[in-house]
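new request in #modeling-help
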Amino acid sequence: MKLRYNIKLAGILLIGAAAFLTACEEEMDLDLPQKESQLVVDGWITDQAGEHAVTLSYSAPFLGDQGFTYVKGASVTISGGEGEPEMLQERADGRYVTSPQFRAEAGTTYTLNIKFDDQEYEAKTIVKRPLEIDSLTVVYHKKSVLKDEGHYVLFYGQEPAGDIADFYRFKVFKNDTLMNRAKDLVVTDDKYVNGNYLREVEFHGDPFKKDDRIRLETWSLSEQAYTFLREMNIQINKGGMFDSPYANIPTNVVDKKNPSNKNVRGFFGAAAVRTRSVVVK
Amino acid sequence: MNKRSIAVVAFLLVHVAGWAQEKVNLKGIVKDAATGEALIGATVIEQQSHTGTSTKVDGSFQLALQKGQIVLVVKYLGYKTGMLRLNLQTDWFADIVLETEAGALNEVVVSDLKKNENVMRSDVSLEKLNQATIKAMPALLGEVDVIRSVQMLPGVISPGEGATGFSVRGGGIDQNLILLDGAPIYNSSHLMGMFSVFNPDVVKEVTLLKGGFPAQYGGRLSSILDVTTKPGDLKSPSVSGGIGLISARLAAEVPFVEDKGSVKIAGRRTYGDRFIKFSEDQKPGENQLYFYDLTGRADYIINAKNRLAFSAYASTDVFSFDEKLALDYKNQLFSLQYSRFFSDNFRSKLEAFSSKYKYTAGVPSGPEAFELESDIHNIGSNLTFNYYAGNNTLTFGGSALYYKFGLGKITPGDGSFFIQRNIPDRFSFEAGAFVNHEWNINERLLLNYGLRVSAYDYLGKQTIYDYVGETGKRKEAVNPRGYSKGQSVKRYFNAEPRVNARYSLDDESSIKFSYGRISQYVHLVSNSNASSPFDIWLPTTEYVKPELSDQFVLGYFKNLRNNTYELGLEAFYKKLYNQVDYIDNADLVLNTNIEAELLFGDGRSYGLEFSGKKSAGKLTGIVGYTLAKTERKIEGINNGRYYPGKYDKIHNLNFMANVELNNRWSMSANFVYGTGMATTLPDGKFEWDGLIVPVSSDNGRNNFRLPDNHRLDLSATRKGTIRPGKRFRSEWVFSVYNLYSRKNAFSLFLRQNEDQPQKSEAIKLSVFGFMLPSVTYNFKF
């Protein structure tokens, strides 16, 4: 499952080890002005009840103190499945939220429509079948080359069989806070495990302490969402010797009035989510 | 194609047979190998003509000899007899070094280069390094390294500290044909790129051709790096070795038939991991990180006309951690060379080789156990004939190569939840025929021209696809078609004309011109700033076209002070076609339809190279300065416009010097300075699900420069006392790498600060960014 992840990890690790820890990092002052600002869509809907949000913002220069700016007063709707299109309500900082009753359904295609000023944008996504969590266990590891000392969570579950390619994201919450640094992003396809029972799948990252409450969420992804997150993972985890060149990641957001407009970024996705928790003892 | 080539050869043979023989001068000097002292009164006899003389007070001699094959025998009391075979075509200078009887070497060490060879030969863009020069350079962690030495030559660029390979005149690292005794090497690095695979103790000479390739060479666009090993001693057995900071070396040579046959075997292994504790309570064997290599060579002189040489090489790098992660990669080479002298002016050489590179990576045990393996296997043969007649040398022959590309296979371990997955192997066959005529038209003009014809078959068993979609995006594989085993899927032919001309202005200066076309049928699939051992080689297919290049070189060569100083100035222009590149975020691992991730386009590279060399006297050295530009134009990258190539370095200065202070001490220095390489940096960022993602407004490629790089290394060698009548020799080598701890940028990257998520930062990554001292002890007896 985490085959790719392992291979990548191996690459990063070997540099540390092979070069006898000879690589070092140093912050640099660069002059890197942004040539053009980009519209960014960040939206997820899931099959769980609750307010689902779509955030509309503009990119900022990578370096420097300039913060993000947000789109105000847009009309944002999500349509798909049965029933009327869902009108999203504007909150602060470019956040537009659904009603708490809104739930996406597996197998359904949803369309996000955004209108503001004279502009109109659209994104489509599909909800794929979920990855059920059988159980979670906790294992203790001593300090080693690959891991810090502490407790780690292991996942057990049946990967759905059949010809349909499945894609997942795993989110780990510690005491209800999402572990959300660049290195915590874990996405995978089922190419190497299709239909098998997955067991003792361990999540790399920082270890947990006694009494930590760990919640794991499995998110089913469309192939497009998987590609977006896989490529985002590459872009936000640079710094090894075997990095590929920086490149923009594809988006599913289309400018309706000017389809060749390349200054649109981000992704609108939908997922079936499964959750389970465990307390470290 | 073969028939036509043979006809051309036959015509040329008839044509050249009538050229007359004439006398030329052979001058030389005879010296003591250990001290360099001139030997007075040594006898020098040419055996065929029984012409002889003895050396004067300065050790020099002069003989007037017939052109053609000569055998020179040099004798001096208390020293081993030296012998030099030479095809003498023009006035020549031989530097002859004799070992004392007690010395370990009995073979005469001959510099078979005439002193003004660099000026007089027709080759351009040719660089040679011998073992002594390579060993004299300051070494990283005490490991004398062939490729690091090559990186010091003009026109050669290091891809970055600790990165595999080298770039010649802007070319890719896969555009260098790296040969060890005639067998090509597909991964030239140890420890992910820190060191190269060659054991310096067995290397005799390294020749780098950057352009002006004679017709017998083919297969790579940018250079030929020909590494040859030294044959074993034919008289007496000897052992040599060394102990350094991270590795130990041992070599032994034994004559199995005196004066006729010898074997040599050399090995080295790193032992650093034995002392490094990766963790507090590490169990023995839990973590491994080492490499070893073994080089063997056997030579047998059947008789005066027939010689055999066999070389074998094996290397392994092993990494394993916590019994959770295991990686290894291996090179395995064999080559056999058979030389036959039909007559004094007609000889042939038959070579056969096998080269295999394989890596495995995986998790050894547990539910996630798997093993991923991939390899490339290349077998081949070359047959070359040389015919000399008067002012003409004719070289002709052919080659055949067969390749198997193992693009990847995953095997699940016991009880693992992974599934078996194989990417189909690929196969190809490559053949070449060539003829080359070197013609001394008159005293001033030397012409060397030839033609190489290459033919290539992409072979079944294979399923091929059409790739459709927008260029620059991942394409879709459609319309699969099957081909059976051995069936030709696609065939290519390329005619590769070559011409080199030298016009000498006087004995010490010349102007040279060269044009050559060369083709390349194998491609290393690597989209990273450094090539990793897990990059795969891909054949030319119906979709991936053969890479081609046309290169023009114009050079001026001048020697000063009786050839003590060699100066060269070369201008080059290289155009490259069908270059391989990758779509954004290409998925190159275990991909059956890897073609869907590829992009194609052209490249160009042009510049000026200056080199200065002093190879005699107490102070020797090389200085090289290159002013160059390398660009690529690939549809789907940088909006289809030219952009700086990966190895674009505008200024590059290399300096190396060695000074012999006295009989015991010598010192060396290396200095490099270069413009920073081009890199790609986004200008903006956005927030997505709480993570900061870099974004580029124009998706430009290589739009930013790393800071300039420079570095100084020093070394000092202290030779042990030589006791009369004892064979034991030893030396201590002290070296300091990166003397002033320069943190040269390997790469620049952007990230969200882990501890302060609100902060975005630009980070410079440097490798070996601090002073690294080392000490090595070498011995021989």
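bot summary: The longest helix of chain B spans residues 2-17.
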